[in-house]
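Ticket #4471: structure export looks truncated?
Reporter: QA, pipeline team
Priority: medium

Steps to reproduce: submit the single chain below to the structure queue and open the exported record.
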Amino acid sequence: LKAGHPIKKPSLLFEKIEDEQIQAQLEKLLKTKEENVEAPAVAPQKEEITFDDFTRMDLRTGTILEAEKVAKTKKLIQMQVDLGFETRTIVSGIAEFYEADSLPGKKVCVLANLAPRKIKGIESQGMILLSENPDGSLYFVEPGQEALNGSEIN
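Actual output as written to the record:
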């Protein structure tokens, strides 16, 4: 610079930020965050049934005695389930979430009066109740360990 060059009036590079301004911005961010958080997607409720429809379902407690993955499938496990009054074969699409060797001894809830159905050539004689989260993961609906096999679920 040459001698006598005019220098501009100095100014502050940063403003002082008061605590109230910081708090207001934090509250604004939290409010935006809360608005953007979506509730987990839950499947819509199915059509209403009558009490008589419900009483026609025979829900029982049981214990898985044996379980093995069905050959040439990704999802199916074949289980032998003790219902107290008989042992039934039940095929379920749970192999992506459970290992067959971890299932024996597990207490389960079974829809016992479901009409038999052939699945991959195996006759399935009931359905084990599971809950499904929005992400598709499955969890057993489990009776207490003290529930006897064959006990009705009311």
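Status: closed, not a bug. The export was complete when the record was re-opened. Leaving a note from the reviewer for reference: Residues 19-36 form the longest helix (18 residues).
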